[in-house]
Amino acid sequence: MKRRGQSIRTRLARALGQASLFLGLAVACAVWVALKVELDELLDDSLQSTAEVLRLLLPARDADALHTLEGRFAWQVVSAGGRVLQRSAEAPVQAWQAQAAPGMRHVPGWHVYGVALPPPTDSAGAMLYVGQAQAARREAQAEVALSTVLAALVVGWPAHLWLRRRLDAELAPLQRLSARLSRHEPLAPPGGALGPPERAELAPVHAAIDDLARRLAERVMHERAFSAHAAHALRTPLAGIDAQLALALREAPPVMQPRLQRARDAAARLQRVVAALLALFRTAEAPRREPVDVAAMLGRLPVEGLAVQAPPGITVDADPDLLAAALLNLLDNTLRHGGHHVCVSLSGPGTLRLHDDGPGLPGERRLALQEALAQQAYTGHTGLGLMLADLIARKHGGQIMLPEVANGFAVEMRLG
After folding, report:
1. What's the CA angle centered on 307, arms 327 and 338, to 5 degrees?
2. Percent of the chain scoring above 70 in pLDDT
3. Pairing, β 341-348 against β 351-356
4. Is the whole-model pTM more than 0.85?
5. CB atoms inside a 10 Å sphere around CB 40
6. H helix or E strand, kind and range, residue 212
7. CATH number among 3.30.450.20, 3.20.20.80, 3.50.50.60, 2.60.40.1120, domain 8-156
C-alpha cells in the first residue's frame, strides 16, 4: 500500500506548535537575561545599602536592627591586620578579605561589599564587609527564570489554542471542497460546474476542476458517439456476414464445413461485442431498470456449444439490454476458455453468479485480475468481454467480482 502523505492540518499544527514553543522559549530567555541583569543590579544595590546602614548601626549596637539585617545578609568586621573582630551568625570564621578592600568583590561562594568603619572603632582601620551567598543569588535568579517561563506559558498556550482554532477554521473550506468533489458529477447536466469558491485561493482550483470536467465531458461524449456509430456501422455488415456464412456452410463440401463454422462462431462473437457496445453507449442516462427473468433471458441468448443451467424464477432488477449484453460476453468468455457447462444462480440480492467447468485461473492471477477490475485498469489485464461486463455492472452501481472456487472459474455480477 502506498503511504498516505501527512495532512496540511497536521503539518501546520506541528509547525505552529514548534514555532510557538521556540518563540516562547526565546522570549522567556530574552526576558530572563534582562531580568537577571536588573536583579543583579538590584541585589548589588541592596548589598551596598545594607553595608551603609550597618556602618551606622554597629557603633550604636542596635541589636534589633542588626538582627533584622542579619536575616538577609551576613557581615564581618575585620581589623587592619585581617582579624575578624565581629561577625554575624551566617558569616564565615575566616575573613573575607585579609587586606582592606572597599567596594564590590567576588570571593569563593560569596558576593561581598566592603566599606571602611568610621572612628571611633575597636580597631583603627577596620573594614565592614557585608556578603550574600552565591547560592542565595542563584536561587533568586532561578525563581525569576521559573516565573518568566510560567508567564510565557500562561500567555503563549491560549495564543497557541487560538491559532489552532483559526487554522481549523481556515482549513474548513478545503474539507468542504473535498466533500463537494466526492458528490461532484462532471458529466451530469447542466454542465457539471463545481460552483463558486469559498476562498480566493481556491479559485484556481475550482477553475482547473471545471476545465478538467469540461474536457472530460467532451472526451466522453466523443468516445460515446464514436463507439455508438462504430457499433451501428458494424452491425449490418456482420449480420450479412453471418447470413452468407450460414448459406456457405450448407453448400460447402464436408471438408470445408469446420472452417466455415469457426468463421461463423467468430462472427457471432463479434456480433455479441457489437451488441454490448450498442447497449452500453446507447445513452448516457441511468439504466432502465425492470425485473428480468434470468432463466428466460439465458434461453434466448444465441450461445452454441455451451450448456447453461439456471433455476427458474430467479429475477434481478436491471436494464434488460445491458444485462443481455453482459451475459453474452461472460458466456462467450467461458466458451473461448474451454468451458462446456455453466451454472447461473443468485448468490445475493441483485448479484448473479456464473460458475463454469473450465480450467480456471491460478490464485495469484485471479487476485491480480480482481485488482485490475477494482481499479478499472483494464488495459493489459482483462479481455474485452470481462471489461464490458464490468462496465455494465458499474453502470448499474455495482461491479464484477471473482470469488475463489475449488474448480473451474466463477464470476459474480453485482448490479447495485
Report:
1. 80
2. 85
3. antiparallel
4. no
5. 14
6. helix 203-251
7. 3.30.450.20
